[in-house]
Amino acid sequence: MPKGVPSQSTSNPSERRNPLRVAGITLGWFVGFLAVSAVCGALVAGLMMPAAAVTETVVAGGSQALTTNLPNDVFSAPPAQMTRVLAADGSQIATLFNENRTRIPLDQMSPNIKNAIVAIEDYRFYQHGGIDPEGIFRALAVDAAGGHQGASTLTQQYVTNMLNENLIAQGKDAQVVLNGQKGVNQKIQEMKLAIGLEEKYSKDQILAGYLNVVGFNSNAYGIQAASQYFFSVDAKDLTLPQAALLAGLVNGPSLFDPTVHPEASKSRRDLVLDAMLQHGYINQQQHDDAVNTPIQLKVNPPKQGCAYAPQAQYFCDYVIHQIENDPAYGATLDDRDQKIMAGGLTIKTTLDPRLQGPAQAQVDATAGANPDKWGASLVTIEPGTGKVLSMAQNSRKLPGQGAGFVSDYNFNVDGSDAAGNSLGGVGGMQPGSTMKPVTLAAWLGEGKSTNQIVDASKRRYGIYYPWKTTCHPVQGWFDSTVRDSSDLQNDEPNWYRPMTVREGIYQSINTATFASLAGLNDFCDVQRAADAIGLHLGSGKDEKIDLSTLGNILGSQNVAPLTMANAFATFAANGTYCSPISITEVDDAQGKKIGGQTSSCQAGALKPDVAKAVTNVLQDVLTKGSGLLIPQKLGVPDAAKTGTNEWNNQTWVVGYTKGLATASFFGDPFSGGSDRLGRNITVNGKFYPAVDGAFIAGPQWAQYMQGVVGLYDHGNFDAPPQNLISDPAGQRTKSN
Fold first, then answer.
1. What is the rounded distance in angstroms from the CA atom of residue 343 to the CA atom of residue 76?
2. Mean pLDDT of 20-24
3. Given a cut of 60, is residue 239 above it in pLDDT?
4. What would the CATH number be for the domain defined by 432-582+598-735?
5. Which CATH topology does 13-70+101-291 take?
6. Phi-psi region of 156 (alpha: psi -120 to 50; beta: other; left: phi over 0)
7. CA distance 151 to 157
C-alpha cells in the first residue's frame, strides 16, 4: 500500500470493525450527505457529475443558484499583503504587514511546489469541478472505518482561506472558522462557492490564488514569503525537497514546523514525496534522492516596521504618519492603518540614500557613545521642490541597533507627524538666533538696506514703548526698571553700540535685531515674513508661531528642524515657498496609483529680491560672523545662521547652498529649560564651558554638507538689488 493512504484496519486484530458495520456506517454517511446536499439543488449535480458536466450544468441553468450569494469582493480583493516603503532610487527602506505575504504569478513559482501541493492536498485537482465526489466517498469510508481523511479540494480550501482573509480584513478575527470547526451548512456553502469559483476561474488561476493565500507559518503567508522565510530563496527557485517540505506544512503549520519539529517535518516531507511519486510527478530516482536529502534551512525571519528599517527609521515613521493623517487613504484612522498594514502598498518616497547615509554617519559621529543622551539631528530639503532628501538622528528605535540611545521620538518633525506621545513627537526645539533672519526679511521687505545703521546700544523696550503696529498690540518688554524684568542682553558685552543691520545679523547681536524691529514701519511685517516662509509651532502645521510677543522674536518658541530647513530653503529658492513632501507615489497591490504628494510651491511667497538679500547677508555669517568658528568650509557658495537658546542646551546651524537646505541640531531635544544646562559638559571627549551653535551643530552641518553638496546645484546665488545692500547715495544712515 502506498504511503499516505490511511489503513482501514487497526494494528490490533481484536479492534477490527465488522465489515457489515463498516458498510452500514459508510452508507449512512452517504445517505445523510445526499439528504443535506439535496437542499442545494445544483450542488447535487456537481457532486454526481464529472468536472466537464458540472460546468455544463452550471452554465445551462445552475449558475445563478451557485453564485448569487457569492460576495463580489471575496475573490477580486487580494488577501493581506506586505507594504513596502522605498527610497527615491527604489531601494527598500522598510516593510510593513499584518501577514507576511508577497503575491506572485504562477509562472514565478517552481513546478516542484505546484506539483507537490496538488499531489498531497488534491491529486484529482485537474479532474474535478470544484468538489470531488470520489474523494468524499473515500473519506466517508475511511472515517467510518475509524481513520481520518479530509475531503476538501484545493478549490474548497482556497474558498475557506479567502473567506477567512476577508473576515480578518474587516477586523472580524473571532468569526474565522477552521476546517475542523465547520458545521454542515458551512461545508455546503463552501462547496457551492467552490463550484462557482471553478466556473469563473481557470485551474491555474485557482492554484495560484491558493498558493498565494495559504499560511505556511505565522511569519509566512503565501509561497513567496514561505520560500524566503525557510530557505531565503524565491519561490521560483525551490528545489524538490524544499517544495515538498513546504507543501507538507499547510496541513499543520505548527505541527510540522521544521524549526521546532524537524523529525515530524521530514516525515511529512517524505510523505509528500511519496505522493508525488505515486501520482507520476517524479520518478523513483528523484524520489529517493530527495528523501535522502537532509533538511537544510536558511531561516530569514521577516523584520517588519520602521523600527527595523536598515536606513532612515525616523523618516520611515514620518512617511507612515503622513499617510495615517491623510483622509485620502481611508475615512478613519483604522481604515488607513488597515490599508498600510494589509494593502500591499508600494510607497515611493523622496529620500535620497546618497544623502541619508552620510547624514546618519555624521549624527552618530557627532555625539559618539553619548551616555548623557544629547541629541544630534540633520534634515535636508531641496529648495524649489520641498522634497525631504534626508532625515537622521543619533538615537535608535530598538536596543542593540547601534551606539545611540533608544528613543521612539522623531527629533526632526512636528509632533503631529511622528510617534512618541499624545501629540506624536518631540514637538520642536527652541531655534534661538536662527529666527533672526525673519526680522531681517521684514526689514528688507520694507525696502530698507542691510547697511543701514541701527542703535544696538539700546537695551530697554518698556511697557509703553511706541511700536508701530497695524495688526495687534505688541506683548512683553525688556526693562530693568519694571519688576521681574531685565534689560535686553547680548551674549558678549562689547556689542552694545551702533552697527549696520548686516553686522547685527552675521554677528548675531540681540540688541541689533531689536533696533531693527524698532525701525520697522509696521511690526506686523515680522509675522508676515514668518508666515511667508512657513514657520509654525512644532506641535503641528496648523499652530501658528506668535511673533507679536517680544520674547519670541529671538526664538523661544519650539519649531521643528524640518520646518526651519524648509524656511531657509525659501531663501535659497529666491522666495519660492514649497510645502515639504516626502511621498512621490503610492501604488496599490495591483500597481495602480492611488496617491502621492506633488510639489506645492508658491512663487513670490517672499519677495524674490528680499530672499536674495537675506542670502547675501547670511553668506557673511560663515565668512566673518558667528559661523566663522566652524572650521570646515564647503568651498561653494553657502549661507547659514547659528542659533543657541538661553540655556545653551538647544543649539543650531541652519544653512543652505542653491540646491540643499539643511537644519543641524545638537542638544537636549526633550527640554529647552534650565533643568539641564548645556554648560560645563564633555561631548566626544571635548570639554565645553558653554555650547554654542557654531561649536557642535556647526561642524556637524559643515562636515555633512561637504560630503553631499556636489550632488545638487551648488552654483552662485543670485545677486540682490543694490538698493537693499547699501543706501541709494552709498551713505549709511542711522535708524532710531
1. 13
2. 41
3. yes
4. 3.40.710.10
5. Penicillin binding protein transpeptidase fold (1.10.3810)
6. alpha
7. 10
